[in-house]
Specification:
The chain is α/β, with parallel strands linked by helices. The chain has 15 helices and 18 strands. Helix content is 32%, strand content 23%. The strands form four sheets. Strands 1, 2, 3, 4, 5, 16, 17 and 18 form an eight-stranded mixed β-sheet that branches. The longest helix is centred in the middle third of the chain and has 18 residues. The two termini are 22 Å apart. It binds zinc ion.
């Protein structure tokens, strides 16, 4: 199957390309990139008025299968990814059973194969994510995991964490860490601050995140391991990473659209729908996140796509689970919040969602070029639309962005040369 994608503005941050070019794909690969291409046998896709970019790489997604199929399955999560322009994703291991051995890696990959999405399961750091016994990192690496993480249940035993870093370093695997001190945050629902005071609820303090980032930075420096801070949300957290990078520590970080778009005030309006870990923070934090994205301290935009059932999210704020879906809205929210506001050039926004996360994980993805996989997203950067959770193909409808007007709409998603999503 050949496709000739004609007349689009090709933006490929990895190669510094931003030009009106045609793209010819054949058998899952990009075979030519150039002006005025022709190919008699190819199906033509008219991309005039659209941006053609590498398929998005989302390195933080909860697909929930095995174990929590009422929230999401690999199939529905991958359909949501396709609708959002995401062609490669890292699936978090907090399933049941957890992805702590090669069998579960194989199971998730097997379920993902027919979807067309490149799903890379991350391996758990500890058996059952219980924080007690390290998994077999070498076996997980052989099974294909790109990284290790106990996301959601961060390791509190520092001797164990230090040994995990030493072993991960020896195998060249990054450690992705959800940075919040568990004793300080318990199962609290909101940021500690004005809103927690107003609601008379205990809060999750920013210091709980910052201490753990500092701890990880120091252990990374000590062991030489590569640590990646998940979903960074506080101003001081960004500053710690900025300073560590300047010292040459191998640390990177990611954030999510909710942290550069919403503040803790959203909890007053939307209750449990705005509950997420780490929690939505203050306006000053939001601005620091935006500054970190602009100056290169923050390396990737991810979703932390965390579907829950309607019943679960209908619980009262202190009892509802944390998390929000994001795969179907991340590109639009990033374009709306960062590009259309003039904060970041388009190329930089796309780099944060393609080439940069691919590079962090050592993946041969996130870029266009002859001979590369034909993973692409074609989108209209200016099209205004209203986010409607009823239109989601994810099982999860838990978004705080329902009803929000955004700019930037995915028209086609192509993975390994096949159209896996087409608008309408
Ligand atoms: Zn997390």
């Amino acid at each position: 199957m050949q496709f000739l994608i004609r007349g689009g503005r090709v933006v490929d941050p990895a190669h510094g390309i931003d030009d009106k070019l045609d793209i010819l794909t054949d058998g899952g690969k990009i075979v030519r990139l150039g002006k005025g291409l022709t190919a008699d046998a190819a199906q033509v896709l008219d991309a005039s008025g659209l941006i053609a970019a590498p398929g998005l790489v989302d390195m933080h997604v909860h697909l929930r299968e095995p174990g929590f199929e009422a929230k999401e399955t690999v199939a529905t999560g991958c359909a949501a990814a396709a609708r959002g322009g995401v062609t490669t994703l890292v699936a978090m291991p907090n399933t049941r059973p957890a992805t702590d051995c090669p069998d579960i890696v194989k199971l998730v990959c097997g379920k993902a194969a027919p979807t067309g999405i490149n799903v890379l399961p991350a391996g758990a750091v500890t058996v059952g994510q219980k924080g007690q016994q390290l998994t077999d990192f070498a076996a997980l690496k052989t099974a294909g995991v790109p990284a290790l993480t106990d996301d959601g249940v961060p390791i509190q035993n520092l001797a164990l964490l230090r040994r995990a870093m030493q072993e991960a370093k020896a195998l060249g695997l990054p450690l992705l860490d959800h940075c919040e001190d568990r004793d300080m945050v318990q199962n609290y629902a909101v940021n500690e601050g004005e809103v927690s005071k107003r609601l008379d609820l205990p809060g999750r303090p920013a210091i709980a995140e910052e201490l753990q980032i500092m701890r990880d930075v120091m252990l990374a420096e000590d062991t030489g391991a590569y640590v990646h801070v998940c979903h960074i949300s506080t101003a001081k957290g960004v500053d710690i990473v900025r300073q560590a990078k300047a010292r040459g520590v191998h640390v990177t970080c990611e954030t999510c659209p909710q942290y550069f778009t919403l503040t803790e005030e959203e909890v007053l309006r939307q209750g449990a729908m705005a509950r997420v870990n780490p929690p939505l923070r203050t306006q000053a934090d939001l601005e620091a996140i935006r500054a970190g994205l602009a100056d290169g301290t923050i390396d990737a935009i991810v979703t932390d796509h965390a579907p829950h059932t309607a019943e679960e999210k209908a619980k009262l704020l202190p009892d509802a689970p944390s998390g929000m879906v994001g795969l179907e809205t991340s590109l639009a929210l990033a374009l709306t919040g960062l590009y259309h506001t003039g904060l970041l050039p388009l190329r930089r926004v796309l780099a944060l969602m393609t080439a940069s996360p691919a590079a962090l994980l050592g993946l041969d993805k996130g870029t266009l070029g002859e001979g590369r996989d034909a993973d692409l997203v074609l989108f209209d950067p200016d099209r205004e639309w209203v986010i409607d959770k009823e239109q989601f193909v994810s099982k999860g409808r838990n978004t705080p962005f329902h009803g929000r007007t955004v700019r930037g709409k995915v028209k086609y998603t192509i993975s390994r040369g096949m159209i896996i999503y087409q608008e309408g």
